[in-house]
Write a structure and sequence with these properties.
The chain is mainly α and about 300 residues long.
Length: about 300
């Protein structure tokens, strides 16, 4: 076994050559790998470890050092640390396959996960201000914009689901809409009274004027050329309404989806019902929306627990 004589620097050189020649890695990517692996090699050297002496605990300690800077280098964000862990795992796997070492101490070590960044829910009052701002002005466009935002907030639809709607997907008599989510998975979602009224107003007084400029496209939401409204244009509609409403926080289509879910849960909706409305495959995904204030929790506890008021 070459591991008895090969130094860490030699094994690293062989691996980088393998990446360049056999894997055809680009110069920029190879340079990033080199930086990551040289940092790892320095960490091992500081611990007095030869490459064939590394154990899983050493790799775990290095991952911790990447996030905290405990090795005297700059701490890395989860994404950058993840890239570094991917690089060292590839190096260890290569050394095992080449017979340099007898085992792979990195095999069970996983990259650090990024913290989930949740959009902030918009308060009900500010959502109402946003919706009112969308309908300012005359003509078909304000009617369309109000209908779009009412539907997004009233159903929790993704922006792609909303702009992908066809007129036949609407059943305003039954106050429902058929949405097609990821993988074209279909779900039927109830539509609230305000959204129904806004969509009806747009279909009767706004959409015909927009459709006249096109060729009879079946999409619900049309641009001024009679073509389906794009996701980018729908995003712009929201941004313009937010600016007119004087909202200082960042508002995105997903902010409305998050607000829809948060307001339902705060109102007492069951998380599995919200899961169905959002079209999530797993309730675990929905649970990221269950950020409820301490005061709300106290109110639910006080109203529900038999000994709460004792």
């Amino acid at each position: 076994m070459r591991g008895a004589t090969a130094t860490t620097a030699e094994v690293l050189g062989e691996y980088l050559a393998h990446l360049a020649v056999e894997r055809g890695m680009s110069e920029n990517t190879l340079a990033a790998y080199r930086r990551d692996l040289e940092r790892y090699a320095a960490f091992l050297e500081a611990r007095g470890l030869a490459f064939d002496e590394v154990r899983e605990g050493d790799v775990v300690a290095y991952v911790e050092a990447l996030r905290t800077g405990a090795d005297g280098r700059s701490a890395l964000a989860a994404s950058s640390a993840g890239r570094a862990v991917t690089a060292l795992r590839g190096w260890h796997r290569f050394a095992l396959e080449e017979g340099v070492v007898a085992g792979d101490p990195s095999a069970e070590v996983r990259p650090p996960s990024s913290a989930k960044r949740l959009p902030k829910a918009i308060s009900v009052d500010r959502v109402e201000a946003l919706l009112e701002a969308a309908s300012l002005g005359e003509g078909p466009v304000p009617l369309r914009d109000r209908a779009l935002l009412e539907l997004l907030y009233g159903t929790g639809a993704r922006i792609s689901e909303a702009v992908g709607l066809a007129v036949d997907d609407l059943d305003l008599t039954a106050a429902s809409v058929r949405l097609f989510g990821k993988g074209r998975k279909e779900r039927v979602v109830p539509v609230g009274r305000y959204a129904v009224e806004a969509v009806e107003a747009y279909l009767v007084r706004g959409r015909p004027a927009l459709a006249a400029a096109g060729r009879g496209n079946p999409a619900v939401f049309l641009n001024t050329r009679g073509n389906p409204l794009s996701r980018q244009s729908a995003w712009a509609v929201l941004q313009q309404a937010a600016a007119r409403a004087g909202l200082t926080e960042h508002v995105s289509p997903h902010s409305l989806r998050h607000s829809f879910a948060t307001h339902l849960l705060a109102g007492g909706a069951d998380v599995r019902v919200v899961q169905e409305l959002l079209g999530h495959a797993s309730v675990t995904t929905t649970q990221i929306y269950t950020q409820v204030t301490v005061q709300t929790l106290r109110e639910v506890y006080a109203a529900s627990h038999p000994r709460a008021l004792g």
